Amino acid sequence: MWKSLLALTAGLLLAGNVSAASAADKLKVGFVYVGPIGDLGWTYQHDLGRQALVKELGDKIETTYLENVPEGPDAERSIEQLVRAGNKLIFTTSFGYMDSTLKVAKKYPNVHFEHATGYKRNPNMSTYSAKWYQGRYIQGLIAAKMSKSGVLGYIGSFPIPEVVSGINATMLAAQTINPNIKVKIIWANTWFDPGKEADAAKALIDQGADVIMQHTDSPAAMQIASERGKLAFGQDSEMIKFGPKTQLTSILDTWGPYYIERVKAELAGTWKSENTWGGLDSHMFAMAPYTNMPDDVKKMAEDAQAAITAGKLHPFKCPIVGQDGKPVECKGGDHLDDGQILGMNFYVKGIDDKLPGK
Amino acid sequence: MQLVLEKRVERSGTIALVSPLIAIGLTILTMVILFAILGKNPLLALHAYFIAPLTDGYSLLEIAVKATPLVMIAIGLSLCYLANAWNIGAEGQFLIGAVAGSWIAVKTQGTDAGAWVLPAMFVLAAAAGALYALIPAICKVKFGASEILTSLMLVYVADLFLDYLVRGPWRDPQGFNFPTTAEFDPVATVPLLIEGGRLHLGSIIALLVVAAAAILLGRTIKGFEIRVVGAAPRAARFGGFNANQLIILTFAVSGALAGLAGIIEVAGPIGHLQPGISPGYGFTAIIVAFLGRLNPVGILIAGLFLALTFIGGEQAQIAMKIPLDVTKIFQGILLFYVLACDSLILYRFKLVFPNREVTRGAG
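ok -> structure tokens follow
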């Protein structure tokens, strides 16, 4: 009995090894996800990118992912497990993986790493992110046009530069339409928590906001806005099905083209450590269709999108005045430079709130 | 004919020994069925879960790294639970320990402070964890407040306090405003035991804690007191044992151990303070404590076993594309069977034949 079981196990294991050998000539590409894939949100969009990659290069590569990897001590092990399983190019798709990715990268100089939204790099570790503030600018224009109360509601996740620059871009755009526009900000201190996000949306609406914007992942705010007959913007994914009469547009993360480009470089042996920060022009993200707005507002949004894509309009065009009333130093010629936006730690004038930690 | 559970006259020693084995056997059987339904080869899947991680050195070390905080916290909790003191807030004590220890690391950053830094961090972390655990203990003893509630609530306080520090005063000035401290200096980092791996001094400390707890419970009067107060409070009172004093003591010890585990995790595998330093260690350790039957050696084994399921689950995800949810189902099923089988220690199955006379009369 034991012998036959052993023989069976051995046979199965050998069979497993054979199939592994035939897959060995394919490039192995690994992904580390911070959440479950689910059916919308940050991780879902990364997995859509992975699926696009498989569709395009499936005969040359094999992809593996680990989902729900916490951004703590477990991350380093998860990344290293992917290395040990033979993955040669590994995408770690959350900011919190930065130091873990760097540690593993230093340990395995022959494996290439790509870390999303961070700022630490290595000869074998790239970073990539998108200029979502461009999308926020367009949303700010739409919001100011559509708001009757002149009060926007903003659900922030964490007061990190990416989120702060989104709020500022929204405000700068809205002020070009309505100089007296107000924004109410609630920090949910989470990326995904439908309960908290719904509470935040209710509180914002109770304070007079009639357009809800969010930097969190769930469609909860969209649903609340829909119930209360207000308007809202989606985030990361298409959320129109949660508010067919509510969603104005949504910033859609579209990682597929970038993933395909990087894997092609890896296959061709031309992969280099880079810092990619792509905007609308490089298709790192897209805007969902402009809905639930009059034609003139839609036209304005489309024009702004075209101008930003063509490089004719920069959301952080100088002069910019800080919350303290002093002008912000203009390091990028006629607009703020990338470093100032990536490290943004101040509110622009007109935001009637205090930045946490300031 | 009916199958009923009947209380045993005495607890069954044999079942107490074999019940974890029955539970593991039933779990494996259930998983085989589940894998088959998923269309995965059950033998290969079980191999990926249980055997593969045990056959290479790297995975063994990772299991030890993962088990280290779980075992340290669970040992402390087991002392509480044995004494009938219900500390549910080890997660908070873990975080407060990490914060207190990190204070020294942050304040000495970039200075030429010497080798005293790490030991001082350990001492401060343990002290802070103990003090934090004393809050619910004293509330319990002085005011009769439920320690289950108060210790649990203090987890959130600790979590938010940590959050405040890394977003505010302790934020890395070079960190683009992201919520983390700068990487700790080498003198503030737990030394690695093996070059290139992640096994660190903390695992040795965990083993020493296990040994100390085994001696405390098996060989000392204090250990006897703890067990008597928990098992037979009335007898303990007649024996002159002070239950309140033991609540204070066990809470302090378990808080200290959780705090120590916290700073070891932060100054070890993580290397800096950030939000989310614990993927729920303080809560998982409760499971470890009970899986290990509140026995130090049992806890060591249970901690390693739970760590194995984490590492194995990850390898199954990579090698066989088995979703993470299956790993969670697996851990849940295991606990379910362990608890179910444990009821056989105090109860037994009995077939009951209905009384025919009565049946006929009723018909």
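The first strand of chain B starts at residue 2 and ends at 7.
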